[in-house]
C-alpha cells in the first residue's frame, strides 16, 4: 500500500482520492494515513485473478467464511478477486436442475435443497441473504484491500430473474413476444430458447433500462468501493452500452473490467481483459492428444495480429462453468494439469484460479445446490504458490497492457514448446513436452539459468536433452 503524509495545507490533494469511503481525514500534520491505491495497469501486469464461489467455498457458504481466508489467497499471489454474483436470487422459476424448477418439487424439505442460479438476479442492489449482509460484504472488500487485493463483482447484464421489480414496474425493459409476454433469452441463430428459462431477457433498445442498469452498477463502485466487474455473457449485450457504462464508472474511480467473451471490440470499448476461451479449448485438446503444440502456436500468432497491444487475455485450466459442466481437472487433464497450469502463468496474459482448484479439487461442484470445496494443501497448492510468486515479481512474466516479449524457439517441433520472455533485464525460458511420450530436444537457447521449480542450476549449451511425458521447465536467468 502507498503511505501518504497528509498535510493540512495540502488537504485538497488528499480529498480528491476516491479509494475508501470509510477513510477519515487526518487531524494532525504528521499523521500517516494508509490509502489503498486505485487499480492501475502496473498492477494488472503481474496479477493473478481468483474466482470466488462464495456458496461452495466453505461449509458455511458465507462472505465471512471466505473473508477469513483472504490472506491465504495473498500467499498464492492473487491480486484480483472476482466474486461470483452476490445479489439475491429469484424465487420465481428458481432452477432445481438443468430443466426443472423448485416449484415442480412437492416435498418441501427436498425443495429447500435447491438454491437456484447465481445468475438469476432478483434485485441488482440487493445482497443474497444466503451469503450474509451488506456489512459482511463490505468487510470482505475492506479486508481484501488491506491485503493489497482488488475486488470485482460478477454482474448479469443480459437478463434478470422473474421476480425482479422491473418485471412488474417496467415490463418495457424486457424483450416481449408478439403477444406482449416477457420471454427468456432466445438464440438468434435458431429463434429458439437457449434453455435459460429461469431468467427474463432484457431489452437494450430501451434507453431507460440502460440508465437504470448503469445507476445500479455505479452504486456498488461508489458506495461499497468495489474495483470493477466481470460481465456475464458480455457478447450478448450491445457494445455501445458497455462503452457508456464503463465511462460512467471510471468517472467515479479507475475500475477493472473483465468480459466473459472473446471479442476484440469489447476490449476496444472499455474492457481491460477478456476470456482466452479458444486457448482453453486448445489446452484441453492437447491434453487429450487430439491436437499438438502447433494449434497453440497458430492461436498466439493469430491474436498477436488481430488484437491491440494493450488487450489482456485471461487464461485458465478451469472455472465455474468448466468444473460443473465440462469436468474436473482430474477428468480433463488427469496426467498433465501441472504443465497446462504452468503454461497459463507464463504465456502473456493473466492466470485464473477457481475456488477449490488450489486444493486440487477432484469433484464437480453442484451448481444449484449447496456443496463445498476441500481445504487440504498439497503439492498443487505449493505449485500455485510458487507460480504466483514468480508472476508477481518477475517482469519477464508481465502480461498486461505493457507485456513482456514472447519469442518462440524450436518451432519446427510440434510436440515440445520452447519460448523465451524478456523485460527490464529479466528473462524466462519455458520448455515443455506436451505429449505422453518422452521427447528429445536440443534447445536453440543457450546460457546459464536456474530451474525455478526444482531450484537447481541448469546450463543450456546446445546439447540434446530428454523430456519425460508432460515434463516442463521454467528457467530463470
From TrEMBL:
What keywords would UniProt list here?
Lyase
> Which CDD domains does its entry note?
AmyAc_arch_bac_AmyA
Q: Which Pfam family, just one, is annotated for this protein?
A: Alpha-amylase
* A GO MF term: lyase activity
The species this protein was found in: Hanstruepera neustonica
Show where the Glycosyl hydrolase family 13 catalytic domain sits.
Answer: 30-391
Listed name of the protein: Alpha-amlyase
* SMART domains given in the database record: Aamy
List this protein's GO terms for biological process.
Answer: carbohydrate metabolic process
Q: Which InterPro entries does the entry link to?
A: GH, GH13_cat_dom, Glyco_hydro_b
